[in-house]
Amino acid sequence: MSHVLVVGGTGMLRGASLHLASQSNTVSVIARSQNRLKTLVEEADSLEGMIHSIQVDYREGEQLRAKLKKAVDLFGPISLVVSWIHSTAPEAPSIVADIVGRGSSSFRFFDIWGFLTEDPWHVEREKRFQEMEKILYRKITLGFVIENGVSRWLTNEEISSGVIQAIEKDKASFVIGRVEPMSAHP
């Protein structure tokens, strides 16, 4: 059984959180909503693994650090991180990498980017993480879908399914949906 961390695992990553728990993993899930975490834990009750809820707003750095340390103390080193962190919390990805890196010899870090996130913050984070010794950095870009000539954003189910595929394929870069042509995005 592995210890896995999913940041933002009750919304668009809910399906990925449950899938990872079904694979006999202990999945620590970070989210702000206690109700959504409770529902996720209940839904995972019949799975081979388990969901460990971590209610915290990742913009609160010291709380995030303390709760991640506690999860590692309880369930051991984290071998896989799936992270959906917005640029409103510029320190959060580094806090996650620091805490996870302390207990692991190496770990995969799947960093999810929105479609239009080629901003300096994301690019700098990607570069910094690629240079860290213990991190096997993986970038997932969320795109869009064109159906019957009409474009739309990905659904939560499509995102979770794509994240699962990205983890299974374990490539340095993975796109869910499509990102071209730029003029066709919703």
Considering the chains and any ligands shown, give keywords for the structure.
single chain; 186 residues; alpha/beta; Rossmann fold; seven-stranded parallel sheet; two-stranded antiparallel ribbon; 6 helices; 9 strands
Gist of the model:
This protein is an alpha/beta fold.
Protein described:
The chain starts with a strand and ends in a 10-residue tail after the last strand. The strands form 2 sheets. The chain has a 7-stranded parallel β-sheet with strand order 3-2-1-4-5-6-9, sandwiched between helices. It has a two-stranded antiparallel sheet with strand order 7-8. α1 packs across α6 (156-169) and α3 (61-75) runs parallel beside α4. It has a single domain, classed as Rossmann fold. The chain has helices at 14-22, 34-43, 61-75, 92-103, 120-131, 156-169; strands at 3-7, 26-31, 50-55, 78-83, 107-113, 135-142, 144-147, 150-153, 173-176. The chain is α/β, with parallel strands linked by helices and 186 residues long. The mean pLDDT is 92. α5 links the parallel β5 (107-113) and β6 (135-142). It is globular and about 50 Å long.
Taking strands numbered 1, 2, ... along the chain, how are they ordered across the largest sheet? 3-2-1-4-5-6-9
CATH class: Alpha Beta
Helix/sheet category? alpha/beta
Stretches with pLDDT under 50, minimum 5 residues = none
Quick one: CATH superfamily? NAD(P)-binding Rossmann-like Domain
Kindly state the mean pLDDT as a whole number? 92
CATH architecture: 3-Layer(aba) Sandwich
Instruction: Assign a percent range to the helix content.
Output: 25-40%
Overall spatial form: globular
Span of the ends, CA to CA: 40 Å
Number of β-strand runs: 9
> What is the fold-level CATH name, i.e. the topology?
Rossmann fold
Number of helices: 6
Tell me the fraction of residues in β-strands, as a range: 25-35%
Q: Give the topology string: H per helix, E per strand.
A: EHEHEHEHEHEEEHE
Radius of gyration: 16 Å
